């Protein structure tokens, strides 16, 4: 880069490299620490959950997964895209993926056959500009002002075709895309705006690494004093690069850009030189970021197993330390809880639990019908199809979607809907929205549990058979799967009313108690945090122990209430005494 571009001499290049090296070194240390802390935190949470697990809790028969993989694109279709270098326009088949990344292919056939895309747009940090010409002119005038040029010298930008919109980022390449018509433009803009908002951008699939990146990044920014901007969108490398470039802009580049004021050639030349400087700066920084971050990921990924082994060796000591904090919380909070939890709370728990339980019980026949129907649907599809191997992804897709798109889902939702009114009218509930939807998710989750169990069992039972090439065999295996799974479904469904009513009521109580206890326990929790040794205060969280304690208190309240009280609020010992006559003579 050297002296080729005005203002960027060897000294300034050295300063720029120094800023980049300083931040990357600071981030490397912060990232490694954050990774270790997150590994320890998750392992401690696992140990804690194991220690607190209810030994009397019934075991589930079906297999459950946390999240159903979403494969359907948000939107697909042809549009015309301007090239990044040659600037020519080419028709491309666009696919907005479920993870909010936007791919574009040579054509629809290339996408459907699974060919590699021509390119991908990671829209994190981008914004959609609907009036391209006006926005470009506005930005050109802003650049002219920075370069000390007269706005009147700014040439009118080339007009873009009708129905064109722009994906714009302050530092990354823009994308100019033309839809077929105004309606398509509006539809695509709506989808892409949502992608810009929702796309995380982080590429590392390791959830620990993703948390560590965020924590390490913010820690490095604080240590380096980067308080003036919030660069946090895009891939890990883009975020690091944007942050470093932001620091360089603040410390170095103002002088460089000022030197362009006196440059001969007018606005057009100055703008061209400025663009070259920015491009060279971005390339220089990114060339430092990529190998640095790659090395950090490789190093930290090797930390996980040794760290977990160390934690497991200290498992008993850790549980003791966790229990000590819980004991301290209990000693300090028991009296306060007695003031907050009155008879009205205890009386309210019973009716809430039993009313919700009654509603959920009415959902079970509909849930069962939904599961049977989707099993029969894929079985009938397979019966006359001898290319099961090619069709299996579609069959599994039907199973995966059963939870949200089953034929009887509307009936299930309508049957569950009274829970909303129960929560709305109950004196313990201030805002039952989250509890309502979480309960509904629990009700519907059993459908996905049955579907997932079906998929896994089918893959196991077809081993050694011709099921992938013989529809009759496949259908017979599917029937066997159904016959084996439905008793498991019935066993899990039997637990559902108790589980859903318990979780909804517990969430209601947690929200109520947390709100009431927050001002009363603030100073106490602060004292406990100060007492935690610095060596472990990033891992042993008083706040997490507090939340666990409140969660346990609420669970115990519900268990005690439902053991002794019926749905009418009568104690079971007092209910209908004549039904149990004395055996005395």
UniProtKB/TrEMBL annotation:
Residues 564-585 are annotated as: Disordered. InterPro entries: Niban-like, Niban_1/2/3_dom, PH-like_dom_sf, PH_domain. PROSITE patterns: PH_DOMAIN (PS50003). Residues 565-574 have a biased composition (Basic and acidic residues). Residues 72-197 form the PH domain. Pfam families: Niban2, PH_Niban2. Transmembrane segments: none annotated. Belongs to the Niban family. This is PH domain-containing protein. It comes from Exaiptasia diaphana.
């Amino acid at each position: 880069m050297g002296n080729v571009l005005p203002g960027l001499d060897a000294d300034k290049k050295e300063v720029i490299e120094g800023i980049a090296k300083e931040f990357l070194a600071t981030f490397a240390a912060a990232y490694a620490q954050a990774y270790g802390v997150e590994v320890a935190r998750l392992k401690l949470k696992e140990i804690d959950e194991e220690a607190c697990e209810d030994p009397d809790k019934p075991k589930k028969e079906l297999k459950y997964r946390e999240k159903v993989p979403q494969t359907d694109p948000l939107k697909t279709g042809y549009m015309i895209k301007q090239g990044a270098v040659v600037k020519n326009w080419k028709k491309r088949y666009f696919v907005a993926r479920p993870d909010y990344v936007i791919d574009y292919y040579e054509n629809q056939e290339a996408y459907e056959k699974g060919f590699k895309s021509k390119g991908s747009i990671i829209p994190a940090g981008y914004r959609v500009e609907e009036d391209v010409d006006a926005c470009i002119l506005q930005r050109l005038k802003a650049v002219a002002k920075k370069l000390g040029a007269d706005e009147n010298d700014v040439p009118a930008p080339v007009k873009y075709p009708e129905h064109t919109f722009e994906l714009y980022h302050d530092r990354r390449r823009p994308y100019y895309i033309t839809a077929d018509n105004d309606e398509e433009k509006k539809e695509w803009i709506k989808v892409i705006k949502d992608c810009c908002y929702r796309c995380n951008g982080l590429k590392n699939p390791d959830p620990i690494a993703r948390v560590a990146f965020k924590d390490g990044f913010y820690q490095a920014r604080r240590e380096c004093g980067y308080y003036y901007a919030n660069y946090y969108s895009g891939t890990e490398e883009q975020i690091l690069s944007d942050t470093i470039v932001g620091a360089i802009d603040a410390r170095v580049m103002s002088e460089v850009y000022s030197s362009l004021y006196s440059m001969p050639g007018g606005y057009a030349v100055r703008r061209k030189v400025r663009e070259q400087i920015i491009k060279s700066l971005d390339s220089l920084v990114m060339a430092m970021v990529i190998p640095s971050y790659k090395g950090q990921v490789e190093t930290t990924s090797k930390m996980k197993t040794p760290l977990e082994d160390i934690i497991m060796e200290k498992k008993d000591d850790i549980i003791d330390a966790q229990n000590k904090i819980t004991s301290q919380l209990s000693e300090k909070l028991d009296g306060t809880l007695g003031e907050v939890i009155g008879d009205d709370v205890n009386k309210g728990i019973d009716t809430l639990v039993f009313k919700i339980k009654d509603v959920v019980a009415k959902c079970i026949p509909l849930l069962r019908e939904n599961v049977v129907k989707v099993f029969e649907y894929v079985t009938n599809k397979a019966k006359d199809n001898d290319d099961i191997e090619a069709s299996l992804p579609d069959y599994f897709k039907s199973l995966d979607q059963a939870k949200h798109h089953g034929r009887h889902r509307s009936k299930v939702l309508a049957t569950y809907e009274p829970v909303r009114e129960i929560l709305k009218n109950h004196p313990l509930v201030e805002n039952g929205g989250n509890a309502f939807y979480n309960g509904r998710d629990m009700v519907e989750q059993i459908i996905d549990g049955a579907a997932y169990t079906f998929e896994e069992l089918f893959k196991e039972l077809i081993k050694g058979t011709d099921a992938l090439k013989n529809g009759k065999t496949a259908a017979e295996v599917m029937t066997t799967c159904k016959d084996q799974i439905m008793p498991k479904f019935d066993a899990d469904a039997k637990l559902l009313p108790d589980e859903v009513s318990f979780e909804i009521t517990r969430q209601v109580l947690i929200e109520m108690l947390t709100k009431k206890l927050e001002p009363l326990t603030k100073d106490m929790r602060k004292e406990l945090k100060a007492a935690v040794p610095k060596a472990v205060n990033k891992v042993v969280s008083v706040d997490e122990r507090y939340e666990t304690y409140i969660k346990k208190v609420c669970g115990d309240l519900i268990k005690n209430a439902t053991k002794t009280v019926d749905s009418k609020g009568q104690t079971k010992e007092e209910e209908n005494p004549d039904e149990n006559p004395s055996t005395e003579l």
